[in-house]
Design goal:
Blueprint (H helix, E strand, L loop, with lengths): L1 H16 L6 H4 L5 E2 L6 H5 L10 H14 L3 E8 L5 E7 L2 H4 L2 H11 L13 E7 L6 H16 E2 L1 H9 E6 L4 H13 L40 H13 L3 E8 L5 E3 L13 H21 L27 E8 L5 E4 L2 E4 H21 L1 H21 L4 E4 L5 H13 L5 E2 L4 E3 L2 E3 L5 E4 L5 H8 L18 H5 L3 E4 L21 E2 L6 E4 L6 H10 L5 E3 L3 E5 L2 E5 L4 E4 L7 H15 L3 E4 L6 E2 L7 E3 L5 E5 L5 H14 L5 E4 L13 E4 L9 H12 L3 E5 L2 H7 L26 H4 L6 E7 L13 E6 L16 E10 L4 H7 L3 E8 L2 E6 L13 H10 L5
Parallel strand pairs: 4-6, 4-7, 7-9, 18-24, 27-28, 27-29, 29-30, 30-35
Antiparallel strand pairs: 1-5, 2-3, 3-6, 8-9, 10-11, 12-16, 12-17, 13-16, 14-15, 19-23, 19-24, 20-23, 20-26, 21-22, 21-25, 31-32, 31-33, 33-34, 34-35
Helix pairs in contact: 4-7, 7-12, 11-12, 17-18
Keywords: Carboxypeptidase, Hydrolase, Protease, Signal
Pfam families: Peptidase_M14 (PF00246)
GO molecular function, one term: metallocarboxypeptidase activity
């Protein structure tokens, strides 16, 4: 009787946990033996896989244990996240190969060189297995522990062949900060009795969720942009190892099944080699075979595409590798009710691990073909470059050397060769000065990638894009550039150059009168804030002037910053030490003045220098705000310009004293949670002299609540006269969508919002269909789209007509304060640097606009 009761009790416990708990036999192949000296994940963690979400520290501890016990594996750290979490690769190969790992890496890299005569049979293949770039796509990272156990413990002839011929880099979490947020949330809301209902709080993370990194960026868009340390480290490792296959494990909606590439054929990027798609198709057969064995449904060639090169599965494609996107239905909790029945985290983890095995099987069987493809890509790139009418790209901005150097740094990171231009050249009305401009010849093995970075996209075979349709980098950096069609027109240096941050200096030396610095350089907001933080009085010029300094005529224009020496809280020596330090740190030249009397224009004591306040900035977050908008702004202040910004939840606004703040930023969002008292509080604060920055669709909120008088154009309705087939009916809804385009605007560079710009045209990146109407007010719209605004990217003609001559930015008086509306993204994904200064002008100069 006792045994019967025990059995019933055990059965009840199993029933409570349901099918979420699975033993190792559920996950692992049974055609190999396993080394008992290597602990299984189940043994190491004291729980079954999928029972609880593993956290990042647990996963790292298991990786280090495998590193300690297995001669097949070593750990290498390649970066640190913003929250100082290590990002690692565990490198697997045979014990013999581990002894000569550096030699094998060099051999592998040498094989793909154009003139290499190495035999593919003698060269190791390299595979990178990447899990969980989106932190809340948890089955990916949780499956990584199965991968390393299998590679460390499995014993068979097939495993020996794999490890003898392949070097495998396992990256357990591409986004440890986001993964930590999600695993904490999922575990803290997991019940003892499984609850799979979609309305359960465990499936609905609080703002901003675990998908993004510390600054709420989607890291799966950053491989090309190289804004964040996770991506920078990862891409550096990519070029160090030049993997032949790179996997990218994700999750999608809970009611889906499983996706593996290839994606939608009509949305392939034309710069991707055709052979890449052939190999992707061939590898897909292995995924199908392995998923069929375990009875898991799947699909391919739908929904997802490989057009944008900034994603983890598409960046390898333009570099001679094969990137593979996997999308598993995301259950997020231990158990989830779906239209496909009750599903478990364990089931999702097994699918992710299964396609890891199919990838390794394909790698082993297609080794020589994959190696040869990488080499062929380099050979073909040089051939394509030779046929291109464009022979080189010329770029540079002498007035913003720091931004130019940041662009060179980006090109260096992508292994694109850059040279100094050694003679003055005028192209398209722009003078590119010798030694201050740079040349990128197209005839190099990175031809495809550099064409992607410099080229415009104006023709398309499909109107649907999973991501953006264009990303021309010189426009993003607001750096003049030109296409060179004859190499005789340029004179480039013989030695490749690398980025070198300029060090600012004090021209004219120590002053007892005043210091000046121009507002041209990228890091001027950082410089101005550092000086204001020290308690110094600062002023901004609203008119131009000249001075003779060290025997040279120096011209200063709108936006020049003046730092008087007298009347300050610091003495003359302390001020000189401060400006010297700021100059070196920011790369900005300061000018020490020995007279206040200018030969031309205003004098230093003129009333046309306006006194500036030190900004105190509050930004609303959470609630209905867009975390991506808020994160981009936060990152710009915090990382780019080292300016503090206070983040406050929208729900807490009523308890916040706004009077100490000079600027209130409302990132994109509907703000439906703000009540009448909140609206009145904001309105009163602006009327008392505050600067309200309404960003993107927050401008619509401001208008609806009678803060400003902005009106918006109606969006284009779907064209019901178009007659697609029923199966293609979704195309009707995408024709007028805007998924990311580049547009040209003209600006009044004498306006405070445009200080620091020397050219009247500026490129903006538009990601929404909102278009503002013109305001019936003088000087209210210093930046407008031109009458022919189109530059690059997919957009319908009807939308272009809506956009022509529309305002990009407006400023409206509200009592003694101002509403500044930025209708477009001013710091898109943290890499659209050209418009950053305009946003910061609103912060520093918003209160001097009349």
């Amino acid at each position: 009787m006792k045994n019967i009761l025990l059995a019933i009790c055990m059965f009840s416990c199993i029933s409570l946990f349901g099918s979420a708990q699975e033993t190792m036999e559920y996950f692992l192949p049974n055609d190999v033996d396993y080394d008992r000296n290597i602990p299984t994940p189940e043994e190491f963690f004291g729980q079954e896989i999928g029972e609880w979400h593993l956290n990042y520290e647990q996963i790292l501890s298991y990786f280090h244990e495998i590193d300690r016990l297995s001669g097949r594996a070593i750990i290498q750290e390649y970066a640190r996240s913003y929250e100082n979490r290590p990002l690692i690769h565990m490198i697997f190969t045979s014990q013999e190969n581990q002894k000569k790992l550096e030699e094998l890496k060099n051999l592998h890299n040498s094989f793909s060189e154009v003139n290499s005569n190495l035999n593919a049979d003698d060269v190791p293949l390299v595979v990178t297995l990447g899990y969980g770039v989106h932190g809340n796509e948890s089955s990916a990272t949780n499956s990584s522990v199965l991968t390393i156990y299998y590679l460390a413990a499995a014993n068979s002839d097939k495993i020996d062949r794999l490890l003898n011929n392949t070097i495998i880099l396992v990256d357990p979490s591409l986004n440890p900060d986001g993964f930590t947020r999600h695993s904490t949330w999922a575990n803290m809301h997991q019940s003892y009795v499984p609850v799979g209902k979609s309305e359960s709080r465990q499936f609905n993370e609080v703002w901003p969720g675990g998908r993004t990194n510390h600054y709420w960026f989607d890291l799966n868009r950053d491989y090309l942009l190289q804004v964040h340390p996770e991506s920078r480290g990862r891409v550096a490792k990519f070029y160090e190892w030049k993997p032949n296959i790179v996997t990218d494990h994700h999750e999608m909606g809970a009611n889906s099944t499983f996706f593996f590439q290839p994606g939608v054929p009509s949305r392939n990027n034309p710069l991707t080699p055709e052979k890449n798609y052939e190999l992707t198709h061939e590898i897909a057969g292995y995924h199908a075979q392995f998923l069929d064995k375990i009875g898991s449904p799947y699909f391919s060639e739908e929904q997802y595409d490989d057009y944008y090169f900034g994603k983890g599965s598409s960046y390898p494609d333009v570099n001679g590798s094969v990137g593979i996107l996997f999308e598993q239905a995301g259950f997020r909790g231990r158990t989830r009710n779906t239209i496909n029945g009750k599903k478990t985290l364990a089931f999702a983890i097994r699918n992710q691990f299964t396609v890891t095995l199919s990838t390794l099987e394909a790698a082993l069987n297609l080794k020589n073909e994959l190696l040869s493809f990488q080499k062929e890509c380099n050979v073909e790139a040089l051939d394509l470059a030779g046929k291109d009418a464009v022979k080189a790209y010329l770029f540079g901005d002498e007035k913003d050397q720091m931004k130019t150097q940041l662009f060179i740094d980006l090109l260096n990171r992508h292994q694109i060769k850059v040279y100094t231009n050694q003679k003055d050249i005028t192209k398209n009305g722009v003078l590119f000065k010798a030694d201050q401009s740079f040349v990128v010849p197209v005839k190099q093995t990175q031809y495809r990638l550099l064409k992607s970075i410099f080229g415009k996209a104006t023709t398309f075979t499909d109107s649907t894009f999973y991501d953006v349709s264009t990303w021309t980098f010189p426009f993003a950096y607001d750096i003049p550039y030109a296409e060179i069609t004859a190499l005789k027109d340029i004179q480039q240096s013989s030695v490749e150059i690398y980025s070198e941050e300029p060090e600012g200096k004090i021209v004219g030396g120590k002053s007892s009168l005043a210091y000046l610095f121009r507002w041209d350089e990228f890091y001027t907001p950082e410089a101005l804030y550092a000086i204001q933080k020290a308690g110094l009085i600062t002023k901004v010029a609203t008119k131009g002037f000249t001075f003779d300094i060290e025997g040279k005529k120096e011209s200063f224009t709108y936006g020049t910053i003046l730092i008087p020496v007298s009347g300050q809280r610091l003495d003359e020596n302390q001020i000189y030490s401060l400006v010297t330090s700021v100059a070196k740190k920011t790369g900005i030249d300061f000018y020490g003045m020995d007279t206040g009397l200018s030969p031309e224009g205003i004098d230093l004591g003129s009333g046309n220098f306006d006194v500036l306040k030190r900004p105190e900035v509050l930004m609303l977050v959470a609630g209905s705000t867009r975390s991506s908008d808020a994160g981009e702004i936060w990152h710009m202040f915090d990382q780019r310009f080292k300016i503090p910004i206070c983040l406050t939840e929208t729900g807490d606004l009523r308890s916040v004293n706004l009077s100490p703040y000079t600027t209130l930023i409302m990132p994109g969002g509907s703000y439906y949670e703000l009540g009448n008292s909140d609206v009145q509080k904001i309105k009163s604060w602006v009327q008392d002299g505050g600067t309200l920055i309404a960003y993107k669709n927050a401008a619509s909120w401001a208008s609806k609540n009678e803060i400003g008088k902005t009106k918006f154009k109606k969006e284009i309705k779907n064209d019901t006269t178009l007659n697609f087939s029923y199966a293609d009916r979704s195309k009707e809804y995408n024709i007028h969508s805007i998924s990311g385009i580049i547009l040209n605007a003209e600006m009044d560079i004498t306006h405070p919002l445009c200080y620091g710009y020397s050219r009247s045209n500026l490129a903006f990146f538009k990601t929404n269909s909102q278009v503002a109407e013109k305001l019936d007010s003088k000087y209210a719209e210093p930046v407008k789209y031109t009458s022919e605004p189109y530059v690059s990217g997919y957009v319908s003609e009807k939308n272009i007509d809506r956009i022509k001559n529309a305002p990009v930015i407006s400023v409206q008086s509200v009592g003694r304060g101002n509403l500044i509306s930025f209708y477009e993204n001013m710091t898109f994904r943290g890499f659209w640097l050209g418009t950053n200064k305009m946003f910061m002008n609103g912060v520093f100069f918003g209160d001097i606009i009349q």
